[in-house]
Amino acid sequence: MKKLNQSIAALLLGVFGSCVSVGPGTVTLVETTPASTVLGSPEIPETHMVWMEMIEGARESVDLCHFYLHAQEGDLLTPIIRAIEDAAARGVRVRFLAGQKFQTIYPELIERFIEDPHVEMEVWNMIALTDGVQHSKYMVVDGEDTYLGSANFDWRSLEHIQELGLRIQSEEFARALLDVFDHDWALARGEEPPVPQSLVQDLTLDCIMDPTQVRGNHDRWVTVSPAFSPTGLLPAESSWDLPRMQAMIDGAQDTLYLQVLTLDLVGPDGEHFEELEDALIRAAARGVRVRILVADWCDSKGVIEGLKDLAALEGVGLRLVSIPEHSGGYIRFARVIHAKYMVVDHEHSWLGTSNWERGYFFKSRNVGVIMTGNGMADRLEHFFRTTWFSSYAWDADSPNPTKAKSK
């Protein structure tokens, strides 16, 4: 037991300890609010606006990595696609890395970029390496301006899905993310990955907040640390996110707020995802107030049973969220909450691209950020409460108030 406690303490030191480097930079929360809902915060910029600003401002390079690519004419993604092409045409080096899984389903944009002589396009098939997928979603501009978060390169993620991400303007943080990009880019091309250039673990940056919050008792600075998965396929294994997230939960003393698309405690192969589930159970057992939001996609056989068992524990509250269909008609794979983040004790937080299923941490490529600072933590808590207390959320032990939606 003593050895276990020492191990946890060491992990907590890595997550919550003093920063390794302090440099100029900013951190901004970014969201997509599903159209025709009362969700969203006016002070948080929308995803499509941030992407456009970053790409139009590019001078030297734009590196994009996404799960898949999907657009339709006249949507909010179309101007972004044209901005990428315009940037490449004016001499900006554009590299686009996409996952292979949905290439046959959504081939149009991949083919469009492959045919563009100014754009470098690669499709990465991770299955042979890990039996997983390239699931991360991020962008690095000019080696200093980054976005990462839940939003796919999909028109629906800019209009009809609740998404949450971060814009981090910092050369040091960008270098850490580019280490992962360059590693995966090389593997996609059948080349040997380069030696990583960044040893940065923690950076203290300016937290961009609503001015009304800055005047309150909120820290202006937030410490950010890159965190990636899967284990065994990282430029630096110390950056694996799972043990650090487990340490966050095991360090919780007061509150824990978690929102993910899916929280699947038993995988399709029957393997139990005990690392994070057991940590949540331990937190509740020692009196931590645990609140969890998941999408109504979890209301399915084989998933909902485990969630109801978790919700039955003293101290745990769990709600599912159903976003109403759009007035314009049914949209497949949309109208859902898709953000992925956690807040612990009003001070520590994680935001990333992983759903909480075992394969996302052990097999698939995902990226994220672990943060310390009550300014960002309170922003995320406010985002959480807005959804938790909305008319779209319902308790796990209650009947689904909406019709089941096709996935």
Tally the helices: what do you get?
Answer: 12
Q: What is the C-level CATH assignment?
A: Alpha Beta
Strand content: 25-35%
- Rg, please? 20 Å
Distance between the termini: 44 Å
Unreliable spans: 1-22, 403-407
Structural write-up:
The chain has one domain: Endonuclease, Chain A. Helices cover 30% and strands 26% of the residues. The chain is built from twelve helices and 19 strands. The strands form two sheets. The protein has a 17-stranded mixed sheet that branches. It has a two-stranded parallel sheet with strand order 3-8. The longest helix has 18 residues, at 171-188. Mean pLDDT is 90; it is low at 1-22 and 403-407.
Summarize the structure.
The chain is α/β, with parallel strands linked by helices. It has helices at 2-16, 47-56, 77-89, 108-115, 127-130, 171-188, 211-214, 241-250, 274-285, 304-311, 358-362, 374-388; strands spanning 21-32, 61-66, 69-70, 93-99, 119-124, 138-141, 145-149, 153-154, 161-169, 203-207, 221-229, 255-260, 289-295, 316-321, 336-337, 341-344, 348-352, 366-372, 393-395.
Question: Any key phrases for this structure?
Answer:
single chain, 407 residues, alpha/beta, 17-stranded mixed beta sheet, two-stranded parallel sheet, 12 helices, globular
